[in-house]
């Protein structure tokens, strides 16, 4: 009986496109916000085209009252897409109201007046 159940589960998984023995994708865990890497410093040692640039703007209820919000914009560079997406997850979790303009893109393009990073 147990063997039949294992076969049914394996066939169902294969039909759904999951390889046998595959681990489910891990979710990010909230560990708190942190600064992204300094893009200019990282671009000095890593080709800028290989960096991941992250940008986040969002707000949170700052004082427990109505219509009192704290805005935050953060930027940073990362070596991998996963590191950038984890960083975004942390900021979205902490500043979960009206977040927008939050993204990770491959490649850092320095701007003449880059005040945030």
Outline the fold blueprint.
Blueprint: H1 2-15, H2 39-45, E1 52-61, E2 69-78, H3 81-94, E3 97-106
What does this protein structure show overall?
Residues 1-27 form the signal peptide. Keywords: Signal. With 117 residues, this protein is an alpha+beta fold. It has a domain at 32-106. The protein has helices at 2-15, 39-45, 81-94; strands at residues 52-61, 69-78, 97-106. Helix content is 30%, strand content 26%. The chain has a 3-stranded antiparallel β-sheet with strand order 2-1-3, with helices on one face. The chain contains 3 helices and 3 strands, in the order H-H-E-E-H-E.
- Rg on CA atoms, Å: 20 Å
Biggest sheet, strands in spatial order? 2-1-3
Strand content: 25-35%
Form type: elongated
Q: Total number of helical segments?
A: 3
Please tag this protein with its features.
117 residues, alpha+beta, 3 helices, 3 strands, disordered N terminus
Quick summary:
With 117 residues, the protein is of the alpha+beta class. It has helices at 2-15, 39-45, 81-94; strands at residues 52-61, 69-78, 97-106. The model is unreliable at 1-25 (pLDDT under 50).
């Amino acid at each position: 009986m147990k063997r039949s159940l294992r076969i049914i589960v394996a066939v169902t998984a294969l039909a759904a496109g999951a390889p046998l023995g595959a681990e489910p994708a891990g979710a990010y865990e909230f560990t708190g916000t942190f600064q992204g890497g300094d893009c200019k410093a990282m671009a000095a040692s890593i080709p800028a085209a290989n960096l991941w640039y992250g940008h986040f703007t969002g707000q949170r209820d700052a004082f427990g009252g109505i219509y009192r919000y704290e805005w935050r914009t953060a930027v940073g560079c990362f070596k991998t897409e996963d590191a950038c997406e984890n960083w975004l997850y942390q900021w979205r979790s902490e500043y979960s109201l009206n977040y927008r303009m939050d993204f990770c893109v491959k490649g850092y393009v320095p701007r003449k007046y880059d005040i945030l990073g």
